[in-house]
Design a protein that fits this description.
Blueprint (H helix, E strand, L loop, with lengths): L1 H6 L19 E2 L3 H5 L14 H10 L3 E5 L6 H14 L4 E5 L2 H15 L4 E4 L4 E2 L5 E5 H14 L8 E3 L11 H10 L6 E5 L5 H12 L3 E5 L7 E6 L4 E4 L15 H8 L15 H10 L5 E5 L2 H13 L6 H14 L4 H4 L4 H7 L1 E4 L5 H12 L5 E5 L12 E4 L3 E3 L4 E3 L2 H8 L11 E5 L7 H9 L13 H8 L4 H8 L3 H9 L3 E2 L2 E2 L4 H17 L11 H6 L7 H9 L8 H12 L16 H23 L9 H11 L4 H8 L3 H19 L6 H14 L11
Parallel strand pairs: 1-11, 2-8, 2-9, 3-6, 3-7, 4-6, 7-8, 10-18, 12-14, 12-15, 13-14, 15-18
Antiparallel strand pairs: 4-5, 10-11, 16-17, 19-20
Helix pairs in contact: 3-4, 6-7, 10-11, 24-26, 24-28, 24-29, 26-27, 28-29
Length: 708
């Protein structure tokens, strides 16, 4: 019997019951008494610009300027003052940002400052007051305007360009757009770059000066406008300093002794069982006791953000009646014209517990509601994935981290210094807090030693992410010979880094691409375009190449071939939206799950015709080393049913997507349809039908009906 027990393996249903976890007991280390005493709202004083802000304004009058300062330090004030100077001299300014939400926010903000008649907006789905002296738009739109200006042999119609979030230059997916703008922008137009802190600002300065022949002044500021204090939440519920004060002989701050002792214990106490979230409601009570609210919790996944809301309802903390009534009134006002958001499944915790979840799986309108309420001080906590740290402006008094890595869409990778500082940059609201806090919560996915290192590390360097694609090649050939394109590629940040520093390696990978590789990639693309007669033998765009250049989308050649072969429906807007959705979709879908009774035979026949008609071309692209999309039927069915008026909830169920993913599919499909409108000179019926399709798919709840 003893032997049996020793060797016996538990079968299903016989797992040992997990021991109960102890309830958190709020407590704080004695050393925090002095720190917590500084919590409060700063005394209201007339605004006085910081020295770095004044230095930036002075620098702008002398040439280009790169401002690299901590998140929340006051970059927007510099932009406002610089634009005001241009505006007062009857000049024009262009303000480019990476996100539509941020662009919409800046449009509203600048319209209030300069008057709505003087500010225009250009995004994929908004074009208002385009002749205004101040234009707010996305970086892709600015890049496209530069393409058009070069094609017409004209100068860009502006006197000043601001690139916000300039550290996006190093973004793997979109950094190429920032780099193209910096290369193509006429030298006469001063450039102001606004960035979070970056490690190699002097390399960017040297590169810009080498290609633009203007001086570029760096304005750096290391100090945060609101001091940051790092904390550690022990599984008992006691708060400790995370780091101890730096000794005179030390270069870095090290872990507080009690924290170091905690991680040294092999079987230290836990706040939650494996793969479970800690008791969020109890944590909020601790934060409330020590006046550390409002807070942003950075969590690993969308599911964690949603599940955290449920835990808050188990142990709700007290809230004043007046503030709750204010929140309810504000929610009712904001959602009056958006019934789907008003009935959102997460509305109960938002209304009753002052908490919300914010992540890419949610509707843009819901995320905007959360951002608005948090900005106005009507929420206690937001549970978000780390992506919210970049580009969305709702700082809190405290941020809490449960993991030291983040998901990049493919893998979980350790946080970089830049990502970490963007997250902690949300802690402490300028003008609203004397001090901000970053709380580390121990758990399976938290490497406390890494966090210690990140607090001490300088900002990450930014590297070139330029790469050649067919849209770039077609648009450059509108106005450049191949030899002139080679000269442009020689101006890339990648080429500059190669020339000045030699080839750099990080984690075994070469950074960016050198000029020789870029040129070879251009030639490879050019040869394929010649083979397919989008480019003539003498390196000029053919007639087809000229209209195809206006398809500034992810897969321009595949869509162009569809038009060439007369495969696309040109008069049926729902059908055309369905087809474009298949080219936009990036997810593998299970087409076997589609209920055939929902699908008209005509849609199935068109899709099969397109799939069969483009398959040889796709194989040729792949055999030549280029990417070609796999066309799935489920996204097409989804967009068709939505365009035909099926209710959101039914379409959502059919799509097998999260709300945010479906909304993004619809928005990106609308963007592709807008580019089809650009080729109306050649395909007038398709262009007209595209406009009708856009109107059919951009409706509640995809488009927010309120703004910040």
């Amino acid at each position: 019997m003893t032997e049996y027990k020793k060797n016996h393996r538990r079968g299903p249903g016989t797992h040992k019951k997990k021991p109960p976890l102890k309830k958190l007991q709020p407590g704080s280390d004695a050393k925090l008494k002095r720190v917590f005493a500084t919590i409060g709202i700063p005394e209201k004083k007339p605004f006085i610009p910081d020295p770095f802000q004044l230095e930036a304004l002075s620098a702008i009058s002398k040439g280009d300027c790169l401002v690299t300062v901590p998140t929340g330090a006051g970059k927007t004030w510099i932009a406002e003052q610089a634009i005001a100077r241009i505006f007062s001299n009857k000049g024009k300014a262009w303000y480019a940002s990476p996100l539509k939400a941020l662009t919409n926010s800046k449009f509203a903000e600048f319209s209030e400052i300069f008057g709505p008649e003087n500010v225009g907006i250009l995004t994929g789905d908004r074009k208002e007051n385009m002749d205004a002296p101040i234009i707010i738009g996305t970086t892709e739109i600015l890049r496209n305007q530069l393409y058009d200006a070069m094609h017409r042999g004209e100068d860009l119609n502006t006197d000043f360009v601001i690139l916000d979030e300039a550290h996006f230059l190093g973004d793997e997916e979109r950094g190429v757009v920032w780099e193209e703008i910096m290369i193509y922008l006429p030298v006469r137009i001063p450039l102001l770059l606004l960035s979070a802190t970056i490690g190699n600002a002097h390399q960017i300065k040297g590169w810009l000066e080498s290609i633009r022949k203007n001086s570029c002044i760096i304005i750096e500021e290391q100090a945060r406008p609101v001091p940051l204090f790092p904390l550690f939440l022990h599984p008992s519920g006691t708060l400790f300093p995370l780091l101890r004060e730096k000794e005179a002989h030390e270069h870095k701050r090290k872990l507080y002794k009690k924290v170091a002792n905690f991680i040294a214990v092999r079987h230290s106490p836990r706040m939650a069982h494996s793969r479970q979230l800690p008791p969020m409601g109890e944590i909020l009570s601790i934060l409330s006791k020590y006046r550390l609210l409002p807070a942003i919790f950075f969590l690993k996944s969308r599911a964690d953000c949603d599940n955290a809301l449920l835990l808050c309802s188990l142990h709700p903390h007290e809230e004043g009646t007046h503030r709750r009534e204010m929140r309810l009134e504000r929610i009712e006002a904001l959602t009056a014209g958006c019934p789907h958001v008003a009935g959102h499944k997460q509305m109960n915790p938002l209304k009753n517990f002052a908490v919300g979840a914010h992540h890419s799986g949610q509707l843009p309108a819901w995320k905007l509601l959360i951002e608005t309420l948090m900005t106005e001080g009507l929420l206690d906590a937001v549970f978000a994935t780390s992506t919210v740290a970049a580009g969305v402006n709702f700082p809190a008094r405290t941020i809490l981290m449960l993991n030291s890595d983040r998901f990049n869409g493919r893998d979980f990778l350790s946080l970089t210094s830049t990502e970490f500082h963007q997250m902690t940059g949300r802690a402490g609201r300028r003008g609203m807090d004397n001090i901000g806090f970053a709380v580390v919560i121990p758990g399976k996915f938290m490497d406390i030693r890494l966090v210690e290192q990140l607090f001490n590390d300088p900002p990450s360097d930014v590297f070139s992410q330029i790469k050649i694609n067919f849209s770039m090649v077609l648009n450059l050939l509108l106005s450049h010979s191949p030899e002139q394109v080679k000269n442009l590629l020689d101006k890339s940040f990648a080429a500059y880094l190669m020339t000045t520093k030699g080839r750099k390696k990080i984690d075994g990978q070469f950074i960016g691409a050198n000029a020789r590789h870029l040129w070879q990639s251009f030639i490879d693309h050019l040869d394929f375009l010649k083979e397919k007669e989008y480019v003539t033998i003498d390196d000029k765009l053919s007639v087809d190449g000229e209209w195809a250049s206006q398809l500034r989308i992810d897969h321009p050649l595949m869509v162009a071939e569809g038009f060439r072969k007369n495969l696309f429906p040109k008069t049926n807007p729902a059908m055309l939206a369905a087809v474009m959705a298949a080219f936009v979709n990036e997810r593998v879908t299970d087409d076997e799950t589609i209920d055939s009774s929902l699908v008209p035979k005509s849609l199935f026949q068109i899709f099969k015709k397109i799939d069969k008609g483009l398959k040889p071309f796709a194989e040729e692209m792949q055999n030549s080393g280029f990417e070609a999309p796999d066309l799935f039927f489920l996204p097409a069915v989804t967009l068709y049913l939505w365009a035909r008026g099926m209710p959101w909830e039914e379409v959502l169920e059919i799509s097998k997507m999260a709300e945010g993913n479906l909304a993004m599919l619809i928005l990106r499909t609308a963007d592709n349809l807008r580019h089809i409108k650009n080729i109306g000179r050649v395909f007038p019926d398709a262009a007209l039908t595209s406009g009708r399709a856009i109107d059919m798919i951009l409706r509640d709840p995809v488009i927010p009906t309120f703004e910040l």
